[in-house]
User: Which sequence fits this backbone?
């Protein structure tokens, strides 16, 4: 300890003695440690924070898989769930759940729409979270005919019921059903993802035939001592037996058991987060390399000091320890700067997440894991940056130094190490810059792209009709038909529509039959995206009909069956001639739907959704009156002024028809688009920061390494000059070696970029992960920077007086 404290004091003295070097080293450490800690803070919140349950590591999710279609997270059908219930032995408990939305209303407050969880008692017991007030679900609550009950979130209890402790026992209406409040959950609880209400999931004890009935999500708790691998083995064996017993429905299905949080997050975000953390470590490694170069130079300046200490009996280990402790001081101060960087970056990240909140268990606080990680980075960075300088300092020969012999054996070794440093730094920089380039191009394209529909002055909202009150599509359509003219009549409204989804939100796929085409098997039927809309949909979004007409109020259930198709549909199925008047039918041959006559063609409106780079844009629109529409629609109003100012009028129009309905998810269209694209900007900014940091650090580091290497060979070059070598020959001699290093580094960097580019696919907006332009620009830029970093120091050897070099010999 005494030696350590002495070395700490020495480290502080070095800060003052070499102020410029210390400031540069601290700033470099701050950048590397700050960015790496920020990346870990995000990964920690998303993956390591853990569920707020008892023994969260044992909570898993059972899912059905279908490898041929690359679907690995399907819900479990009721028939299969019954089999799993009987045969599973690896779970201490498990149960089914699903999600829905409920209109919550009381005698004194208007209805509000909230996300709700439908949970069996078995699933509730599995997660094991106790209410803060009242009781949770218990045996019998999920049986058919049981009393309707409901659990409230802490947020609803405080905002809707003013934190009334007597709320337990009160009656509320949830989507038309009177339910008794039995409890209030703890703050931030939101199982399964972000739900605010919970009701029992009542499963019909009469199991329908296979291929029919509902599917459910399944949460389970591993039995004590059971690993996920063992649970996976048993679930896969049961799924294989089901495939053998019921090949007509289960032939391609398997089963998967994953930690609950990982299952919700999915594989692609997991790979993206891992890539981001790896990129941050790449920046840190480059920072450490740069600091190491600086400290090697400082160690060279202190050779006589070290030689004297060794001559007086200081052990080599003592010398190494002193240098590492001095570097630890630099890294620790850099970590404080990095912590400031982390705090600002995480505040920005959390603010950005407000557009699309993460699951309830994900928080991004600076907890003990982050602080422990930061402390570990300080030690790691100290060793990575200080190992070479400390070893270099400890190899000083007291006799050689006293004779002022600068040509020690260490120089040759340092030259070889410097070569490796150049290659590593180039490779990491190249990989990071390519990733940053892809993200930058993605963000640039997103900002420059013009949406093919209006987004200004458009108010959107969601409306769900309770199935208890609107039991058939006819009843729902009747309501929509009555509501639409009232929306058009609102003061300040220039256009109004209702649809099953907004433009660019992603429409579902349906198989179709093109009139005149034959299909030998089900897989031959093409699939297209389907939108269900009211008359005025395209006018509301100021979309020009290319040919034909828009839907009208005459397109009723008893009228001619019609459709509007987009230009991608025309290009695929009718590349020659006019599509208007042609026919197609929804469904395959076994579904006797009517033939639809095409009455109009419209531009593509991103029916595949924003960012679905590989999704087909081919789509059709069906009038809502001729569809088997569900009970949920999106409303869009185009207004003359501020769209959000129409909120109250919209609520009034809906309430004038049914005052039990809740209009929710109210926001302007530009906000909708921003919420669907926030992650491009967020992750693009992070990777841009990584790339910019790598470029700055690598440029400085490359120059330093090359300059150091040239300085080592200065005497050799002077001798060559004295023997008649020309200046361009000396420059070429230096450049030849650096060019080889540059080529190797760039080659390895491209390989790194190829490896990390695929996980970035989910946050690239119509950018190929292997975009040749980005790869080429980065390689050329780094090659130019590397050659410049070599050429500038190389020119110095031509300015050394050979007489001085020979005199030194």
Assistant:
């Amino acid at each position: 300890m005494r030696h350590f404290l002495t070395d700490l004091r020495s480290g502080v003295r070095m800060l003052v003695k070499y102020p410029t070097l210390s400031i540069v080293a601290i700033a470099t450490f701050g950048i590397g440690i700050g960015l790496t800690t920020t990346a870990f803070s995000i990964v920690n919140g998303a993956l390591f924070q853990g569920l707020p349950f008892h023994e969260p590591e044992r909570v898993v999710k059972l899912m059905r898989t279908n490898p041929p279609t690359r679907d690995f997270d399907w819900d479990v059908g009721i028939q299969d769930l019954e089999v799993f219930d009987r045969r599973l032995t690896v779970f201490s408990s498990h149960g089914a759940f699903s999600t829905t939305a409920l209109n919550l209303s009381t005698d004194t407050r208007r209805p509000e729409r909230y996300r709700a969880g439908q949970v069996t008692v078995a699933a509730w017991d599995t997660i094991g979270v106790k209410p803060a007030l009242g009781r949770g679900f218990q045996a019998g609550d999920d049986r058919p005919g049981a009393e309707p009950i409901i659990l409230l979130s802490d947020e609803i209890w405080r905002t809707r019921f003013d934190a009334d402790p007597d709320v337990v026992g009160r009656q509320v209406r949830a989507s038309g059903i009177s339910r008794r409040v039995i409890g209030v959950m703890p703050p931030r609880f939101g199982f399964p993802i972000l739900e605010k209400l919970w009701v029992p999931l009542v499963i019909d004890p009469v199991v329908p035939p296979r291929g029919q009935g509902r599917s459910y999500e399944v949460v389970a708790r591993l039995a004590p001592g059971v690993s996920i691998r063992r649970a996976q083995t048993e679930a896969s064996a049961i799924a294989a037996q089901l495939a053998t017993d019921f090949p007509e429905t289960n032939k391609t299905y398997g089963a998967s058991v994953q930690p609950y949080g990982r299952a919700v997050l999915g594989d692609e975000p997991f790979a993206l987060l891992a890539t981001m953390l790896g990129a941050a470590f790449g920046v840190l490694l480059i920072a450490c390399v740069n600091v190491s170069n600086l400290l090697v130079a400082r160690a060279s300046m202190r050779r006589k000091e070290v030689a004297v200490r060794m001559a007086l009996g200081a052990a080599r280990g003592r010398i190494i320890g002193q240098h590492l402790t001095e570097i630890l001081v630099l890294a620790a101060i850099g970590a404080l700067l990095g912590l400031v960087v982390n705090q600002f970056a995480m505040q920005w990240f959390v603010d950005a997440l407000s557009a699309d909140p993460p699951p309830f268990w994900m928080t991004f606080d600076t907890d003990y894991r982050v602080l422990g990680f930061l402390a570990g980075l300080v030690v790691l960075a100290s060793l990575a940056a200080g190992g070479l300088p400390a070893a270099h300092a400890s190899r000083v020969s007291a006799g050689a130094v006293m004779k002022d012999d600068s040509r020690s054996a260490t120089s040759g070794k340092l030259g070889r190490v410097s070569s490796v440093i150049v290659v590593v730094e180039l490779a990491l920089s190249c990989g990071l810059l390519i990733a940053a380039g892809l993200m930058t191009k993605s963000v640039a394209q997103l900002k420059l792209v013009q949406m093919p529909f209006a987004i200004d002055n458009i108010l959107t909202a969601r409306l769900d009709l309770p199935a208890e009150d609107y039991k058939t599509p006819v009843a729902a359509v009747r309501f929509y038909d009555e509501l639409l003219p009232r929306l058009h009549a609102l003061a300040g409204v220039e256009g109004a529509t209702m649809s099953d989804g907004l433009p660019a939100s992603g429409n579902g796929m349906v198989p179709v039959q093109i009139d005149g085409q034959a299909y030998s098997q089900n897989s031959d039927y093409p699939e297209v995206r389907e939108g269900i809309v009211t008359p005025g949909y395209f006018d509301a979004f100021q979309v020009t009909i290319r040919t034909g007409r828009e839907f009208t109020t005459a397109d009723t259930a008893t009228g001619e069956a019609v459709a509007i198709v987009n230009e991608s549909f025309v290009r695929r199925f009718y590349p020659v001639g006019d599509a208007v008047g042609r026919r197609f039918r929804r469904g395959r041959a076994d579904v006797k739907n009517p033939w639809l006559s095409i009455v109009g063609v419209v531009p593509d409106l991103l029916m595949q959704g924003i960012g679905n780079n590989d999704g087909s844009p081919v789509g059709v629109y069906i009038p809502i009156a001729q569809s088997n529409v569900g009970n949920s629609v999106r409303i869009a109003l185009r207004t003359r002024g501020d769209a959000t100012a129409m909120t109250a009028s919209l609520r009034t129009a809906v309430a004038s028809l049914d005052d039990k309905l809740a209009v929710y998810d109210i926001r302007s269209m530009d906000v909708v688009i921003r919420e669907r694209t926030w992650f491009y900007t967020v992750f693009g900014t992070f990777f841009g920061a990584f790339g910019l940091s790598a470029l700055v650090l690598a440029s400085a580091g490359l120059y330093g390494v090359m300059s150091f290497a040239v300085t080592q060979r200065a005497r050799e070059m002077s001798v060559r000059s004295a023997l008649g070598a020309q200046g361009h020959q000396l420059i070429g001699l230096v450049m030849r070696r650096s060019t080889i290093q540059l080529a190797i580094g760039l080659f390895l960097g491209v390989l790194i970029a190829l490896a990390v580019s695929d996980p970035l696919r989910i946050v690239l907006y119509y950018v190929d992960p292997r975009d040749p332009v980005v790869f080429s620009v980065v390689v050329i830029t780094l090659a130019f920077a590397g050659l410049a970093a070599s050429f500038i120091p190389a020119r110095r050897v031509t300015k050394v007086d050979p007489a001085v070099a020979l005199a030194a010999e």
User: Anything to note?
Assistant: The first helix runs from residue 2 to 17.
